[in-house]
Amino acid sequence: MAKNIKPRAEDYAQWYLDVIKAAQLADYSPVRGCMVIRPEGYAIWEGIQRELDRRFKDTGPTNAYFPLLIPQSFLTKEAQHIEGFAMECAVVTHSKLEHGAKGLKPGGELEEPLIIRPTSETVIGHMYAQWVQSYRDLPVLINQWCNVMRWEMRTRLFLRTAEFLWQEGHTAHETEQEAEEETLRMLEVYREFAEDVLAIPVVKGRKTEAEKFPGANVTYCIEGLMQDGKALQCGTSHNLGQNFSKAFDIKFLGRDNKQQHAWTTSWGVSTRLIGAMIMAHSDDDGLVLPPRVAQNVLAIVPIFKTPEERAKVAAFVEKVVRSLCGDAEFQAGQKRAKADDVAAYFFDKFTHQRVVVDWRDARPGDKQFHWEQRGVPFRFEVGPKDVDQGGVTAKRRFDRQKGFVELAKISPSYLRLELDAVHRDMFAAATKRRQENTRDAASYEELKAIVTDKGGFVRCFFKQDKSIEARIKEETKATVRCIPMETANERGKCILTGQEGQKVLFAVAY
RNA sequence: CGGGGUGUAGCUCAGCCUGGUUAGAGCGCCACGUUUGGGACGUGGAAGUCGUUGGUUCGAAUCCAAUCACCCCGACCA
Q: Per residue in A41-51, pLDDT tens?
């Protein structure tokens, strides 16, 4: 058992932090609420970017960049929007530092304060108003990868930080129907991505009025369930109707030769997904990475005592690496600069996913734990005994499955198939866990009992009502996570009011 | 932002109550040696303006005040 990681059963919150620390994903910054994403963590984000970006472009949107600073007045143009974000905006009021009595002090006060974007609907709306003149200019399909800032009071690495990285897509359409289609199309991209890349099963659903995005007509989401039974929103897609186009005057001359307002959408996922990934898959021994975002897909641990054994093992490891990465990459890897004795070879030149060989002067056990805590999906142990038998001892991080693999079988397609199998098994395990933690409630009493005793998702009929939702939250801490799309048409007796309600999913959320 | 807790070496902490030479331990780190198929051991070494600022005092890690940061619980949220 890992001695630097608190077991989940003892203290889930501490476990989460320990896993991040042990895997060196992130660190606290000198500024409250902000975090440093370390190379191991950033590689995961790059994996997320790579996979999502491709999917966005496949459906139409392309990338652009809008500025960090937004005129304060922009935020006031959409009533709901300002209400939702005003409280957590960082405000820039000065343009320089001057020497004062007690050192430096802000100088050059701005005429109009600027806010650091908490999201970019407003600037983007402002620009779209200028770019859109005719129905021929539509749709506008733009995404941006950037940082945003929301001055949160309570922060947790990845799950909620004052500054975070995300992607925000913003589209403008000719008709309401097109906007709705776009909103749902991106929601499906998120679902497919969460499941096929991060191996996190998610529920597609619609937010209640109480939970929707400030300024949206409809907010859709994908909701995941973490190992401690709490839900986590993993992505959102909003149909903004004409709210922002009216606020920012995004008008165009339609096919009917009449001026009309565009229909807009926005959708985003953030570095929070890394937190979701950690909490969905990792165990008491540390991080477990879904193979498709793992920077290192395979760690080879050589085992030897004498120089003769080392030479023998090294020759064999070379064959393994050449089989997986090719001769040219083996040569390139030999020359690559590195800080320690861990050699890295690119297994996939497109994703830059690597095979690493741990030649550090440490005991094999230490190395096993090292790569285990970092969540590397696969390990090969190569010792004299393995070499004599002409193969390696392979271990899967996810379920510790262990087996012997002959050198002749080791090839790029072998590793790819194994990694795919790990992904499938991880997804299946997470899906099973979610099924086991999804329960039905026929009454409010039942809902309360499930939420306090067991956690997880609670399915029941509910008639939307803001004040009742607030009351339930107060009494149970649970909220309506979403109205699942799959059962959107089902109607039944609301567990509180007895009136006709929709089937919803309750849970305590992060 | 409200309540609670903690700040002493990279990490975990002792010392503080009852102020007094040169501030300690374990882990980690570095060197050397013995080791090496799931977290080894020995010897030696480097490393701390005791969170920060101010006050009390002949003298402050220790007492007082303020402030900052982090952790936990609430309200808010991707």
A: 999 999 999 99
| pLDDT score at A14 | 80
Nucleotides of strand B within 7 Å of the protein's CB atoms: 1-2, 35-40, 68-78
pLDDT at A156: 83
Nucleotide nearest to A166 (CA to C1'): B78
The token duo for A133 is 């003149």
Residue for token digits 């030999």?
A334
A316 and A459 in a single domain? The answer is no
C1' nearest to CA of A368: which nucleotide?
A: B38
Query: Which nucleotide's C1' atom has the smallest distance to the CA of A16?
Result: B71
Tally Cβ neighbours within 10 Å of residue A121: 31
CA of A363 to C1' of B40 (A): 8
Q: Are A376 and A298 in contact (CB under 8 A)?
A: yes
Judge if A273 and A300 occupy the same domain.
no
- What is the predicted pLDDT for the residue at A103? 61
Q: Note whether A299 and A347 are same-domain residues.
A: yes
pLDDT of residue A102: 58
Is the ipTM reported for this complex over the cut 0.90? Answer: no
Question: CA(A6)–C1'(B22) in Å?
Answer: 38
In chain A, the number of structural domains is 3
Contacts of A30 (CB under 8 A, 6+ apart): none
- Residue carrying the six token digits 């009021």: A93
User: Whole-angstrom Cα distance, residue A13 to residue A11?
Assistant: 6
CA of A300 to C1' of B41 (A): 26
Question: From the alpha carbon of A233, which nucleotide's C1' atom is closest?
Answer: B78
- The string of pLDDT tens digits covering residues A180-234 is 999 999 999 999 999 999 999 999 999 999 889 989 999 999 999 999 899 999 9
Distance CA A265, CA A183 (A): 6
What sign does the CA torsion over A61, A67, A68, A73 have? negative
At residue A52, the pLDDT reads 98
Write out the residue range of the structural domain in which residue A387 sits: 294-418
Closest protein CA to C1' of nucleotide B2, residue: A153
Q: Are residues A306 and A358 in the same domain?
A: yes
Distance A427 CA to B61 C1' (A): 52
Three-class SS of residue A171? strand
| Ranges of chain A with pLDDT below 50 | none
Between CA A99 and CA A331 the distance in angstroms is 56
Distance of alpha carbon A132 from alpha carbon A141, whole angstroms: 12
Pair of tokens at residue A119: 């999201």
* The predicted structure's pLDDT at residue A101: 58
CATH number of the domain to which A444 belongs:
3.30.110.30
CA A232 to C1' B75 (Å) is 19
